[in-house]
């Protein structure tokens, strides 16, 4: 692995290695010195073209705990043509000697372009691109589920909400299916992409029929402005048909958990009681996010750039 | 004026006897004679064209020359030079310049620049609506009456989406025999659209441009035109459904013509997987089934012509994120090779049919009498000689265009333009600009 | 596959030879257990930390022996040193091994690091750094099954199962039943070294060196 651009690029062994590594990273939280020397002397740039304080500080904490030098580069609101600025920014990062670039961008494929354009040589981590993917979010979700459910093989995982615009949903469907889970996405038909038949998941329009058969439910954030584009008639109707409240939650099997990538619209896709219930692992997701990002940065950046091979080879023994 | 004797070329003519080997004598801007053992003037320059094919000069009904306004992307001079190198002797310059070609003044400027450039005749296309805004008809009559004698009108880049306005435009141009070339794209269905809508757009997270947004406008406009009895031309038709609609309409006697671009004859949407914006174009690259359908439609005459939609963009408009990049691809210099590859070498079309789709019919739709004439005595000497056996690898840096956004970068394609003549004057010789 | 495997290389390599068998290993570990108790005047302050992979198995066996002698168990865990290695940026990223610090921690304790083979000493240096990030032991001691010499750092073992003079072209491999199906220490000639690397720390996971 040289870059992490799409959850779909990860083999099952790759993904398992990241999750296992994150497990080790997470134990660091219990130690007096929450720092490891693995990335000493390496520079990690957080290149954020979109505001996302949560994701940025999660990556920042991860890089710092691995002793990397961290530079935060907020490129939002640049007035020059966006194209020029991405290329020029990449050239700048190259000149600064960035070993790793964590890129959040509003345009699908922008991290892919950074990785393949030849503008820079560092490893690129996709921290969310447009409506495409958010692979570290999917990894931390899988990690959180694995801690509660054990192996995800055959586990029934339901993803509910605006799949059409959700990079979290895309990455999760790809990763969870790679890990052997049975994924179902539930949304009003307007919020599902056309031609989903090739996706490794099943789709449903009916949340109530799916909940009793779910080991984990992930509620996606639904933006109210989608209502204005006629994706659904009203927030109230959305909430009634696709929101998770305590009554719906009662249909879940006993051990099932509830996830949300945040930030939540309490009262819209998820009720406050559900978000604060014992089934909810939402706060834990945040903690696990740092461990996952440490694992990703460690596996991408700790080796020598010249000899980087798939990390799975190293896993044998 | 130098006289030229082109010897031994395979000459493409219409009709059953579609190709024959003969000599061609050009003098005084005209084809003087076609045959063997021709009487030649003493100072004639002879071009040995054995193994080459002589085609009537190609006519492009859809070219973006960018001048005035975006001279960093293309000028009339560089664009027509690229045209000549691609075997074209006439191009129709689209109206979406800055200022928009929506007045007699702008179209005359473009027309004059074409005359001065001398590489190909430039026929300006006038905008249908003021500023391409789709709200108020431009002065179509003034453009028709101007020195540029505009006959084709298009808001290309924008769809004339208002049905009432489209109806009026079709009706209005009947007064001077004009044609409305529609960029068929229902705007509400394609807000923020980035690529063909389908499985892949969902996976790549790029907003989809559904086929139905094209097909619904085509169907509507064919019906509108059937109602008012004018001339409708469909720009860059790209989907299987569009082919079926046009085919059915023609069968039922509706008047409509349609074009397809070289890139839609060859490339498919999966190129977007690279997120390389050189493959970003409007309408977007479609599926394999669509490519097969437009090839079939071009072969059976449902689609009348090939038009390049040559759309130059400066490097910075393509060297960026997909969604920030401009739509469009270069086309003039590769069109003939791509059509040979997609249609001739596959056995779908003959060279005579290619001459029909790339010269005779586009000239007829554009109402250009100087061009698109069979290669016979008395016709203006507008022709191109091509070597169908040559193969070449496309190198963007070698383009005569000011821009480099060719999607065929690195592809090996058949055919090479050896020479092009515009009214008896060579614009291209030995595959290079003659001046 | 052929039932009679022949050496594939025409190079004349000495056949691998077993230098310690299962009972040799067992005796060595028993002795080490006793030495640890003797040196530390009982099991009280001792925490055993095995260095993955095979150091963990050896630590567990020593722990069993101490329990048998003392009638009580000693805290035993594992310490992964991958991220503390000095060659971390020079090789492809490695998978982490499990670190398991026993519940009482290591502050004020005598940490006995356990590894299979002591070689350049670089792994032990990394382990000392790792320990420093976890706590402040009263003392750190080192137990190894085999010391094969060729130190590159000023490090020595407190408890040695067997001193085994080797040449740099040799490869020492420790087999333990729980990982390899048998107990043995084997010496073989290294296969021709294509990379030209120094013969140190070639791999931490096969237990070949360190």
Automatic annotation (TrEMBL), chain A:
<comment type="subunit">
    <text>Heterododecamer (2C3:3R2) of six catalytic PyrB chains organized as two trimers (C3), and six regulatory PyrI chains organized as three dimers (R2).</text>
</comment>
<dbReference type="GO" id="GO:0006520">
    <property type="term" value="P:amino acid metabolic process"/>
</dbReference>
<feature type="binding site">
    <location>
        <position position="134"/>
    </location>
    <ligand>
        <name>carbamoyl phosphate</name>
    </ligand>
</feature>
<dbReference type="GO" id="GO:0044205">
    <property type="term" value="P:'de novo' UMP biosynthetic process"/>
</dbReference>
<feature type="binding site">
    <location>
        <position position="221"/>
    </location>
    <ligand>
        <name>L-aspartate</name>
    </ligand>
</feature>
<feature type="binding site">
    <location>
        <position position="54"/>
    </location>
    <ligand>
        <name>carbamoyl phosphate</name>
    </ligand>
</feature>
<feature type="binding site">
    <location>
        <position position="82"/>
    </location>
    <ligand>
        <name>L-aspartate</name>
    </ligand>
</feature>
<feature type="binding site">
    <location>
        <position position="137"/>
    </location>
    <ligand>
        <name>carbamoyl phosphate</name>
    </ligand>
</feature>
<keyword id="KW-0665">Pyrimidine biosynthesis</keyword>
<feature type="binding site">
    <location>
        <position position="167"/>
    </location>
    <ligand>
        <name>L-aspartate</name>
    </ligand>
</feature>
<feature type="binding site">
    <location>
        <position position="262"/>
    </location>
    <ligand>
        <name>carbamoyl phosphate</name>
    </ligand>
</feature>
<keyword id="KW-0808">Transferase</keyword>
<feature type="binding site">
    <location>
        <position position="263"/>
    </location>
    <ligand>
        <name>carbamoyl phosphate</name>
    </ligand>
</feature>
<dbReference type="Pfam" id="PF02729">
    <property type="entry name" value="OTCace_N"/>
</dbReference>
<dbReference type="Pfam" id="PF00185">
    <property type="entry name" value="OTCace"/>
</dbReference>
From TrEMBL, chain B:
<feature type="binding site">
    <location>
        <position position="156"/>
    </location>
    <ligand>
        <name>Zn(2+) 2</name>
    </ligand>
</feature>
<keyword id="KW-0862">Zinc</keyword>
<dbReference type="Pfam" id="PF12890">
    <property type="entry name" value="DHOase"/>
</dbReference>
<dbReference type="InterPro" id="IPR032466">
    <property type="entry name" value="Metal_Hydrolase"/>
</dbReference>
<dbReference type="GO" id="GO:0008270">
    <property type="term" value="F:zinc ion binding"/>
</dbReference>
<feature type="binding site">
    <location>
        <position position="64"/>
    </location>
    <ligand>
        <name>Zn(2+) 1</name>
    </ligand>
</feature>
<feature type="binding site">
    <location>
        <position position="96"/>
    </location>
    <ligand>
        <name>substrate</name>
    </ligand>
</feature>
<feature type="binding site">
    <location>
        <position position="236"/>
    </location>
    <ligand>
        <name>Zn(2+) 2</name>
    </ligand>
</feature>
<dbReference type="InterPro" id="IPR024403">
    <property type="entry name" value="DHOase_cat"/>
</dbReference>
<comment type="function">
    <text>Catalyzes the reversible cyclization of carbamoyl aspartate to dihydroorotate.</text>
</comment>
<comment type="similarity">
    <text>Belongs to the metallo-dependent hydrolases superfamily. DHOase family. Class I DHOase subfamily.</text>
</comment>
<keyword id="KW-0665">Pyrimidine biosynthesis</keyword>
<feature type="binding site">
    <location>
        <position position="309"/>
    </location>
    <ligand>
        <name>Zn(2+) 1</name>
    </ligand>
</feature>
<feature type="binding site">
    <location>
        <position position="183"/>
    </location>
    <ligand>
        <name>Zn(2+) 2</name>
    </ligand>
</feature>
<dbReference type="GO" id="GO:0044205">
    <property type="term" value="P:'de novo' UMP biosynthetic process"/>
</dbReference>
UniProtKB/TrEMBL annotation, chain C:
<dbReference type="GO" id="GO:0004845">
    <property type="term" value="F:uracil phosphoribosyltransferase activity"/>
</dbReference>
<comment type="function">
    <text>Also displays a weak uracil phosphoribosyltransferase activity which is not physiologically significant.</text>
</comment>
<dbReference type="InterPro" id="IPR050137">
    <property type="entry name" value="PyrR_bifunctional"/>
</dbReference>
<comment type="function">
    <text>Regulates the transcription of the pyrimidine nucleotide (pyr) operon in response to exogenous pyrimidines.</text>
</comment>
<dbReference type="InterPro" id="IPR023050">
    <property type="entry name" value="PyrR"/>
</dbReference>
<dbReference type="Pfam" id="PF00156">
    <property type="entry name" value="Pribosyltran"/>
</dbReference>
<keyword id="KW-0804">Transcription</keyword>
<protein>
    <recommendedName>
        <fullName>Bifunctional protein PyrR</fullName>
        <ecNumber>2.4.2.9</ecNumber>
    </recommendedName>
</protein>
<feature type="region of interest" description="Disordered">
    <location>
        <begin position="189"/>
        <end position="210"/>
    </location>
</feature>
<feature type="domain" description="Phosphoribosyltransferase">
    <location>
        <begin position="20"/>
        <end position="163"/>
    </location>
</feature>
<keyword id="KW-0808">Transferase</keyword>
<feature type="short sequence motif" description="PRPP-binding">
    <location>
        <begin position="111"/>
        <end position="123"/>
    </location>
</feature>
<dbReference type="InterPro" id="IPR029057">
    <property type="entry name" value="PRTase-like"/>
</dbReference>
<keyword id="KW-0328">Glycosyltransferase</keyword>
<keyword id="KW-0805">Transcription regulation</keyword>
């Amino acid at each position: 692995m040289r870059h992490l651009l799409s959850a779909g690029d990860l083999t099952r062994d790759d993904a398992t290695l990241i999750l296992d590594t994150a497990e080790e990273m997470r134990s660091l939280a219990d130690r007096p010195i929450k720092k490891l020397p693995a990335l000493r002397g390496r520079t990690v740039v957080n290149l954020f073209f979109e505001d996302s304080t949560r994701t940025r500080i999660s990556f920042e904490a991860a890089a710092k705990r691995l002793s990397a030098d961290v530079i935060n580069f907020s490129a939002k609101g640049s007035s020059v043509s966006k194209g020029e600025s991405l290329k020029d920014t990449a050239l700048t990062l190259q000149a600064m000697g960035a070993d790793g670039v964590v890129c959040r961008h509003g345009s699908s494929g922008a991290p892919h372009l950074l990785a393949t354009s030849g503008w820079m040589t560092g490893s690129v981590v996709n921290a969310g691109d447009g409506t495409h993917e958010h692979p570290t979010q999917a990894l931390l979700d899988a990690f959180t589920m694995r801690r509660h459910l054990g192996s995800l093989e055959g586990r029934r995982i339901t993803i509910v909400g605006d799949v059409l615009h959700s990079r979290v949903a895309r990455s999760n469907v790809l990763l969870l299916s790679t890990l052997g889970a049975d994924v179902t996405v539930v949304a009003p038909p307007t919020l599902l992409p056309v031609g989903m038949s090739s996706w490794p998941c099943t789709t449903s329009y009916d949340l109530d029929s799916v909940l009793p058969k779910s080991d984990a439910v992930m509620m996606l954030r639904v933006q109210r402005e989608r209502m204005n584009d006629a994706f659904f008639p009203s927030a109230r109707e959305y909430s009634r048909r696709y929101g998770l409240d305590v009554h719906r939650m009662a249909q879940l099997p006993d051990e099932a958990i509830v996830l949300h990538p945040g930030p939540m619209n309490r009262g819209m896709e998820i009720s406050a009681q559900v978000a604060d219930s014992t089934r909810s692992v939402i706060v834990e997701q945040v903690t696990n996010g740092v461990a996952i990002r440490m694992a990703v940065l460690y596996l991408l950046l700790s080796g020598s750039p010249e000899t980087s091979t798939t990390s799975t080879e190293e896993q044998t023994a | 004026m130098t006289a030229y004797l082109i010897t031994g070329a395979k000459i493409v003519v219409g009709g059953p006897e579609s190709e024959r080997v003969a000599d061609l004598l050009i003098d005084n801007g005209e084809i003087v004679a076609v045959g063997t053992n021709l009487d030649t003037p003493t100072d004639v320059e002879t071009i040995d064209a054995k193994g080459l094919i002589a085609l009537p000069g190609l006519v492009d009904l859809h070219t973006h020359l960018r001048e005035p306004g975006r001279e960093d992307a293309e000028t009339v001079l560089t664009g027509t030079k690229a045209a000549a190198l691609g075997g074209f002797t006439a191009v129709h310059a689209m109206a979406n310049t800055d200022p928009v070609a929506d007045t007699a003044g702008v179209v005359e400027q473009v027309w004059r620049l074409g005359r001065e450039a001398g590489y190909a005749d430039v026929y300006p296309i006038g905008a249908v609506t003021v500023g391409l805004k789709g709200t108020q008809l431009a002065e179509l009559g003034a453009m028709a009456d101007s020195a540029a004698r505009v006959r084709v009108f298009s808001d290309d880049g924008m769809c004339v989406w208002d049905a009432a306005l489209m109806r009026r435009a079709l009706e209005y141009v009947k007064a001077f025999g004009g044609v409305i070339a529609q960029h068929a794209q229902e705007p509400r269905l394609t807000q923020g659209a980035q690529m063909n809508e389908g499985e892949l757009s969902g996976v790549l997270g790029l907003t989809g441009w559904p086929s139905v947004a094209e097909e619904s406008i085509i169907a509507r406009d064919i019906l509108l035109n059937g109602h008012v009895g004018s001339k409708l031309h469909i720009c860059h038709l790209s989907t299987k459904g569009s082919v079926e609609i046009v085919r059915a309409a023609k069968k039922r006697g509706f008047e409509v013509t349609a074009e397809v671009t070289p890139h839609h004859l060859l490339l498919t949407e999966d190129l977007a997987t690279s997120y390389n914006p050189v493959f970003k174009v409007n309408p977007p690259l479609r599926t394999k089934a669509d490519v097969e359908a437009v090839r079939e439609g071009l072969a059976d005459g449902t689609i009348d012509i090939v038009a390049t939609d040559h759309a130059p963009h400066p490097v910075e408009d393509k060297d960026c994120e997909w969604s920030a990049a401009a739509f469009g691809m270069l086309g003039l210099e590769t069109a003939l090779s791509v059509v040979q590859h997609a249609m001739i070498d596959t056995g779908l079309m003959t060279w005579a049919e290619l001459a029909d789709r790339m010269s005779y019919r586009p000239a007829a739709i554009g109402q250009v009498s100087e061009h698109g004439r069979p290669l016979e005595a008395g016709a203006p000497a507008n022709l191109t000689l091509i070597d169908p056996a040559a193969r070449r690898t496309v190198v963007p840096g070698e383009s005569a265009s000011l821009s480099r956004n060719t999607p065929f970068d690195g592809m090996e394609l058949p055919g090479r333009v050896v020479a092009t003549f515009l009214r008896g004057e060579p614009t291209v010789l030995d595959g290079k600009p003659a001046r | 596959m052929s039932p009679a495997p022949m050496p594939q290389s025409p190079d004349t390599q000495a056949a691998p030879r077993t230098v310690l068998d299962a009972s040799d290993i067992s005796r060595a570990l028993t002795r080490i257990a006793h030495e640890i108790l003797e040196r530390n005047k009982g099991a009280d302050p001792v925490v055993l930390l095995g260095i993955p992979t095979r150091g963990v198995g050896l630590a567990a066996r020593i722990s069993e022996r101490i329990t048998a002698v003392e009638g009580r168990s000693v805290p035993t865990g594992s310490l992964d040193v991958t991220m503390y290695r000095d060659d971390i940026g020079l090789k492809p990223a490695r998978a982490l091994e499990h670190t398991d610090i026993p519940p009482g921690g290591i502050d004020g304790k005598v940490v006995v690091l356990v590894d299979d083979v002591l070689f350049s000493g670089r792994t032990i240096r990394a382990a000392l750094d790792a320990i420093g990030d976890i706590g402040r032991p009263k003392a750190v001691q080192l137990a190894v099954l085999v010391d094969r010499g060729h130190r590159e750092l000023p490090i020595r073992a407190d408890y040695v199962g067997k001193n085994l003079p080797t040449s740099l072209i040799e490869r020492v491999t420790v087999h333990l039943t729980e990982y390899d199906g048998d107990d043995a220490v084997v010496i073989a000639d290294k296969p021709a070294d294509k990379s030209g690397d120094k013969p140190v720390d070639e791999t931490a996971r096969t237990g070949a060196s360190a």
